[in-house]
Amino acid sequence: MEKNIKITQIPSLIDMHVHFREPGYTYKETIETGIKSAIAGGFSGVCTMPNTNPVADNKKVIKEILSKAKKYKFNIYPIGAVTKNLNSDELVDFAELKKAGAVAFSNDGLPILNKDVFFQALKSGELILSHCENEAEEVQWQIEIFKKALAEGYNPRLHFCHISKKESVELIRFAKKEGVNITAETAPHYFTFTNENIDNTGMFKMNPPLGTQADKRAVMEGLMDNTIDVVATDHAPHSDEEKLMPYIDSPNGITGLETAFSLTYQLLGLEKTLEKMAYNPRKILKIVNKKMIKVALDEQWVVVPKFFKTKCKVSPYKGMKLKGKIINE
C-alpha cells in the first residue's frame, strides 16, 4: 500500500544567481534545460548572470534571453553586465538595459577591481551584485566605497554574491551593525562542504573556492543571524567531461538548482528557508512573483544526478540523502 505523503504548499523560490550559458555555451546548458532544472528545484524565477557569449551588456542579448524564456511561462530576471564586455572600465548604458528588462547589474565571472568604476556604478542607484574573488579584501573596500556614495548623497544598492569566507561574513556583519544597508548571499555548497572534500577531479571546484571548517561555520552563523540574507545556488553547469577533468584543468562551477531547497531546509527549517530563498530575493529585487509550489517536507530522497534536468550530471551531492522534496506534478 502506498504510504501517505503530507503535502505542504509554500511560496515558490527565487534564485538570485544562476548561469544558463545561453547564448554562447549551449553544450553546457540552455535556457530550456536551465528552466526545467529550476522548476524541478521549486523555483519560479531566476536571475541569469551576464557572462554569456556575447555578454549581456546590450539590449539585444537581454531581449533574446527574455524571448527564449517566454514560451516556458517561467520568470527569468536578467542581470546585465556592469561594464562593457565585463572586462573593460566602460560602464554599460544602465537605463537602456533596464528598459530592455535587466533587473540588476553584475560583472559576475570577473570582479570589478577599478575602485572609481565601482563608485560610478554605485552612483547609478541600480542594484549591483558584486562578484568578489579576493573575497574579504574586495568586500572591505567595496563597503567603504558604498559608504562614500551614501555620504555624497547618492542612493547606492549593493548585494554581495556567493559569500564563502569567515572574514567576509564578519565584515558584512559589522557593516550592518553600523546601519549600512547592504545585502549578501551564500550558496549551499559553502555550508555543506569544505576544502577537505576536494578530490582529484573538478567536481568540487568553484569560485570562490570551498573554505575551511571555520569558514563553513561562519557562513552557517551568518545565515542564522541574518548577516547573510539570501541562499542562491550559483548554478554553473559545464559538460560532464569538463567537470571530471583533473582539478587543476577543470572549470569553476557547480550545479545546484535541484538540491538547494532540501540542503537549506535541513539546515535552517522551513521559516528561515523561505526567508532566504523566497521572501528576501523578492524584496531585494523588488519583484512580485506569487506562484506557489508543493513540497513534502518530511520526505527523504537520495540525490541521483543522472535524473537531473540540467545538462550537467556531475554533482558532489551524488548519493546524499536529503530531507524535503519538491513535488512537481
Describe the structure in brief.
With 329 residues, the protein is α/β, with parallel strands linked by helices. The chain has 10 helices and 11 strands. The strands form 2 sheets. It has an 8-stranded parallel beta sheet with strand order 2-3-4-5-6-7-8-9. A 3-stranded antiparallel beta sheet has the order 1-10-11, with helices on one face.
Would you kindly provide a written description of the structure presented here, covering whatever features stand out?
35% of the residues lie in helices and 17% in strands. It is α/β, with parallel strands linked by helices. It has helices spanning 31-40, 59-70, 94-100, 115-123, 135-151, 166-177, 188-192, 213-224, 240-243, 260-285, and strands at residues 8-11, 13-18, 43-48, 75-80, 104-106, 127-130, 157-160, 183-186, 230-231, 292-302, 321-327. The protein is built from 10 helices and 11 strands. The chain has a single domain, classed as Alpha-Beta Barrel (TIM Barrel).
Q: What is the first-to-last residue Cα distance?
A: 21 Å
Can you give the mean pLDDT? 97
Please tell me what the overall shape is.
globular
Strand content: 15-25%
Order of helices and strands: EEHEHEHEHEHEHEHHEHHEE
Quaternary form: single chain
